[in-house]
Amino acid sequence: MSARTALTTQAYRGRFAPSPTGPLHAGSLVAALASWLDARAHGGQWLVRMEDVDMPRCVPGADTFLLQQLAACGLVSDEPVVWQSKRSALYQAALQQLIDGNRAYPCACSRKDIELALRAMGQPRERHQAAIYPGTCRPERGGLHGRPPRAWRFLCDAGASRVEWTDRRLGRQAQDVDRDVGDFVLLRADGLWAYQLAVVVDDAEQGINAVVRGEDLADNTARQILLQQALSLPTPSYLHTPLVRDAKGEKLSKQTGAAALNLSDPATALNQAALCLGLPQAKAQVPELLYRWVQAWRERWG
């Protein structure tokens, strides 16, 4: 069944899941608008979830401000907002299921340990490249070797770690997670839940069957599909939107100092987001703009 067919035969449930590390910027509004339009174009529900699992990075009050910004743009969750920081029991249960199924194991390696192991293997990490975990603490390699555990990792099956999926915008995608990523973290050394596990558990628990998010997250999809399969959870459809970039061609993000949205005129901000999504510009009030764009989105992605 194609992604488009699945969306027309199921009750659509989508979401926007910002991290409350600061206010919305131009890139995050693009993702919010696209996910809202996709839900409305399919006659479905649109949920907001605060991905505050990385508590040290969260800014007090940012979650409330984000919701106010979204409301100013006419984007309001159809169900009560949930916060990841209040859902630890769900993540713990999922981790235990993976442990019981021999799909997760404790890891004692620090970042320095991983770097040294890769160098010893003749595979030094390139600058700005994520280190591929060499499997030092895998059970078949002796496990922790007497060291205390620091984190928990997902055990990739080398013979079944290649994942193929179809993105509704990007088309056919594929990644061999064991080769390109390695056994990825589920529970961090600092005791915080990793994004990959939290997002998979949350999407399934909330019944999300359509994920619309920025193209920078496309690389995460294969890991999430492996987790869905290991946890016997459904895989939603995926649509990754174009990124908003600065004058240097870099992705706008809070980490790179992206400016907070000026929402003194929400219609102008929405028009700029719509332009990035290839939607027609118009001079109108927010409700009229959203109505027009739902129709345009339905014609393209419905």
Automatic annotation (TrEMBL):
Motif 'KMSKS' region per record, residues: 251-255
Family that this chain belongs to: Belongs to the class-I aminoacyl-tRNA synthetase family. GluQ subfamily.
EC annotation from Swiss-Prot or TrEMBL: 6.1.1.-
Domain Glutamyl/glutaminyl-tRNA synthetase class Ib catalytic per the UniProt entry, residue ranges: 13-260
Lineage, top ranks: Bacteria, Pseudomonadati, Pseudomonadota, Betaproteobacteria, Burkholderiales
Function field: Catalyzes the tRNA-independent activation of glutamate in presence of ATP and the subsequent transfer of glutamate onto a tRNA(Asp). Glutamate is transferred on the 2-amino-5-(4,5-dihydroxy-2-cyclopenten-1-yl) moiety of the queuosine in the wobble position of the QUC anticodon.
Species name: Hydrogenophaga palleronii
Protein's name in the database: Glutamyl-Q tRNA(Asp) synthetase
Any one GO molecular-function label of the UniProt entry: ligase activity
Residue interval(s) of motif 'HIGH' region: 18-28
Enzyme class: ligase
Gene3D superfamilies: HUPs
This protein's encoding gene: gluQ
Ligand binding (L-glutamate): 15-19, 51, 195, 213
Binding site for ATP: 254
Keywords: Aminoacyl-tRNA synthetase, ATP-binding, Ligase, Metal-binding, Nucleotide-binding, Protein biosynthesis, Zinc
Pfam families linked: tRNA-synt_1c (PF00749)
Cofactor note: Binds 1 zinc ion per subunit.
